Amino acid sequence: MTGGYQVYRAALPEVCAADPARMVFTADADGRCEVFAWDASAGRARQVTRRPRGTLHGAIDRDAHVWWFDEDEHGRGQWRFQPFTGGPDRLGLTDVPPGLPRGLAVSDDATVALAVGHGQGHATTVHVGPRGGRARTTARLDGHTTLTGITPGGRLLALAGAGGVTVLTGDGAVRAVLPGGSGTGAARLWSLGFAPAGEDEELLLVRECDDRYVLASWRPGTGVVSHDWCGFDTEITARWDGGGGGGRRVLVRQDRHGRSVLHRADLTARTLTTVPTPAGTLLDAATRPGGDLHYLWTSTGHPPRLRSTRGTPLPQLPTVADRIPGSHEDVWTPGPDGPVHTLLSLPEATRDPAPAPAVFLVHGGPADHDRDAYDGVVHSLVASGFAVARVNYRGSTGYGPRWRRAFGRGVGLTQVDDLVSVRADLLARRLIRPGAMGLWGTSWGGYLVLLALGTRPGLWQAGVAVKPVADCAAAHRTTTPALRALDERLFGGTPDDVPERYARSSPIRYAAAVRAPLLVAAATHDAKCPPGQVRGYLAALRAAGVRHEAMWLDSGHDGYDGGDHVAVLRRAVVFLDRELRGPARRPQTPRSARSGEHRTAERTTERRTSHAEGHHPQRPARG
Question: What are 91-103's pLDDT values in tens digits?
């Protein structure tokens, strides 16, 4: 890469199978996320998209056509493509009305398959046709369904939904249904794509069984085969390893206790080997021709870097300064379902011997986790003199199925209990300052911030909630169908079925009890955490006389405009600085933090559920 591009995607660039030197990535362009084509052999990058609100979804097919999703502020749009070297934009398939993106797949013979959510997103329509040609509608499926792959010859498609995985023929006939329930305690199955080559049309799967995650695969002649020798105690994602060497090889990334472990599995030889990598997080990995493994690595103290297992010189990603201030450690706090893991970052020592004020940075999801990975918000807070605690509360991924299902005291309330326990533990260890503790979360993390401030009001001195769920029942009525289904799994029914559960876990019920000053940032076009339920919560705060500030963004839940992220970051840091420290003991923000501010990735962008973020490409999440 050349020039001042700041890569946004937490993944290696999409690579053309026929020419690995041709790649696609998304990066900053004048404060917006846009799609770029990168010719590694020439060392040149070309900006492909220029959209007022930015572009996030990009891909490249075997023939080096660059693809992107041209969406509006509500997330609806169409897939378009152009040649790698430039040219006119064309619709991926004609006669496909705008809708929500539910997957793109292009076979080796340029057969294009698109999955689109139409109307209010209650159903998914699958369209197939030649690249740039007229679409034919091959299937309509109820609910949130994601297209996860197409065979090289274009004969079979794989789609994943709440009920499991469905394999269709190109004309829409059902070839197989692989059940995988989504309810509590049910066996789960996830689809990770067809093998890119070979005579057999083999689909890679992950199956949850007996509190483990096991690789599996499906072929037309044999059905589903579980590779029980390749099982893991925490969440995994996997991809076919197309780097040569023959055989049915798979790269497996395991998310374990906030860090990544990379494995290479050979399904034919039944062997599993661990690939040595530094401690931290692997955002993505791929084997190149000749067997060299390239991976994108990061840790809390190091921004993302491209690495090679054979020492191949790779382009350096433009990023923040090499030196990131502070120290970073792990803290384990005893809990009823096992120890709670916290990633704790502390500011550098100063003349003040007292512990620093603390900000609990609460992750969203809920099925997600905080990683030992660079985070621009952590950097900014630590550089400003705050301790930062990132708690992987019960319900987080990376600690096994039982931990993910542990909602013993109810949705949200269990997680607040863990935040409270960690708070007490850090105070007992004298790692954070008494009377100077704040909360900051986005999406479901923002929901936990509001719930913690209302249910345990005496423990926190400030809160920042970005694009939060504030009223569980109201959010259920107005959010997306996929997230309504998620709510119903978490709560055990709809608000009409179990109204007391929604009420007990809803922040608006406790709004009048909030005592700490609160900053709420919301988005006017947010479909996942809709603005109406946030306005209702703000009205409840006003009626109770709770001191608060509101900040409205003209965007959706997944904002791609860097200016919005920087605005939230600045407003939140100033707010927390004022409320937790005050002017008397406020240190000057280091120059490194100020100069890198525009180049940090703000947590208000939803975590994309992809190979880079987990093994559940079809799982809905508020972020």
Answer: 999 999 999 999 9
